[in-house]
Design brief:
globular, alpha/beta, 2 helices, 2,3-Dihydroxybiphenyl 1,2-Dioxygenase, domain 1, 4-stranded mixed beta sheet, single chain, 140 residues
Length: 140
Amino acid sequence: MDAENVMRAVPFFRVADMKASLAFYVDGLGFEIDKRWDDRGVLRWVSLKLGGASLTLQQFRPKGQDAWVPDGKVGEGVSIFFVCNDAIAVWREAVAKGLDVSTPEVGNGAWVTGVDDPDGYRIEFESATDAPEDSVFEED
């Protein structure tokens, strides 16, 4: 395979409720809708961007062709890491917006904070640090 031909990976999440997912990603985390597909007046698919990162969400029709209804939280066990300049700043913004985001801790040389989306996907933000492993962030 020609490595130069592959440009990026874009996570694709099947979601149970597009409105709840957009409230989480757009209103909560600050993603912007880049592209969208409305199917018979219903928003079914979006491409979201935040800085240099992107992901896509799709809510499938509950009946008919291409139907899909989840049997539970479809994202359980799936984590996506967003590498950023300052994970602690992301944490502060998420807390200010009322998200149940984890307190930043150091793991593998990075501050890491995370939150579960409405479908159980784990969204993590990390930034490099020289703080000791297993450090837990505390506000001054």
